[in-house]
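Hello Y.,

Per our agreement to keep a running log of every chain we model this quarter, I'm adding this entry. I've kept the format consistent with earlier entries: sequence first, then predicted structure.
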Amino acid sequence: MSDLMQLGPTDVRDFLKSQGWVVLDEAIKDRLYVLSNERYPRRQLVFPMDQFAPDYFDSLALIIDKVAELSGTAARQIISKIQSAKDDVLRLRVAFEGNDSVLPLSFATSFIQNTEKLLKAAACTVLRPRTHHPRLTLSEAAQFVEQTKFGQTESGSFVLRVACPIHALTLQGTLEFDDPETPFVRSVTSTLYHAVAQLADAIETDKVDQMVDELKTMQQPLISSNLCEAISSMHDDQINNRVDLSFDWSVLRAPSFHPIVRPISFQHDYFPRIEEIRRELRSAELDQVDTFIGTVEAVEGEMGGDGRRSGGVVLSLLLSEEGESVRARTMLSPDDYAKANSAHMQHGVYVSVTGRLRPGRQPRQLVDVSSFGMISRDSMTKS
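Predicted structure for the entry above:
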């Protein structure tokens, strides 16, 4: 009863319209929603437009039962779909042989964490497509995850239900094939759908190598190493599970593509291949050519024959796109080394360096340095 009373009249109306029911405008003046459907010419669905009308609950109960009967769907599922009328819903099902009434607690915790990583990876791809995101810390991706809702678990082994309100954020993605009118959340969920479908298809059709080669040359790849890492971490060797992903799209906006109805399944033997794909995409990270701002962490140069020092310097560079700092080692000329040494000896002095930052473990290598200078804290504050 409480579930029915929480269903808003417009949400019920929008859901029914998505199922082919049509509102009769003549009844609105009487504060009633009356709907008909050409597939059921002798049926009408009627309920009050006011949620607190005396017969609202009874009317809704009859409608839910009737729609469940006509569609062959459980009433509980109908209620769940109406509750998520404004949401794109992702369902992740963990299935395995044996005693599926229990799940290792550590794996359950990890599964939820990797679901969050999966969503962040998709959001970062919508914002800045690349085969590897150094960190999933973009503020927009964090805002997206904050707006998602952890739904009640559902029957069928272990089903994690995540609802994403499609109008939660007024942002715009950068993917070229996105309609400018597409809500940001829908861009994320549709990108995730296409990415996991492409990944599963490549494994099933034995086209993994071809897919990886294409991803490495794409300007806007949908699959990243981060997404692969999240999925591969959803497998537990102890229970040897598979993961099925399914999507329900908000009735407020039909998807601009034709999604497959069946779940996208990653069977237990898929996960080692996904891990291989992750490593390949991780190694495809490109050099970053830019002017970086940072601090001097260490000076390791040697004295030359002219009595001046030059050589290795360790910097802490801020990567503005990723919102993080990384340690990098570079080689400086005597003039630039003198500036670095001066900055290292003074408190609150930043440096600006232009060069090519290579991927890899920290300290990363900064090469082809073309300029190096000091920036005071005051000028950083003013800028």
